[in-house]
Write a structure and sequence with these properties.
Layout lengths: L3 E6 L8 H15 L4 E6 L20 H10 L3 E5 H6 L11 E4 L1 H10 L2 E4 L1
Helix pairs in contact: 1-2
Length: 119
Amino acid sequence: MAQKILILINDAPYGTEKAYNALRLAMQLGKDHSDTEVRVFLMADAANCALANQITPNGYYNIERMFKAVLAKGGKVKICGSCAEARGLKSAQLIEGTEISTMAELANWVVDSDKVITF
């Protein structure tokens, strides 16, 4: 039976490497363990990670591209609704495949996951 791994990200997309490292892990899981269900939940300033049309200078990692790679391998990405609302993101254009979610859905994911990792 496939494992379900939940990765919680709590930090902004840029400024620290927490989101970057979390997505590196999510991408590696999708690549090396295709039978694993990878779930990513964005909270606090990490809600900004899901914004579409990110532009970064050449040579720098791009969080949007990394999310698209996770989603392409079947990963699921949800954003805390109250966190998004507090940051004015409720009507912002989000990366296709991501969705605004709730604490109830996060609670369900936590209970249903085999492993929970926080960044």
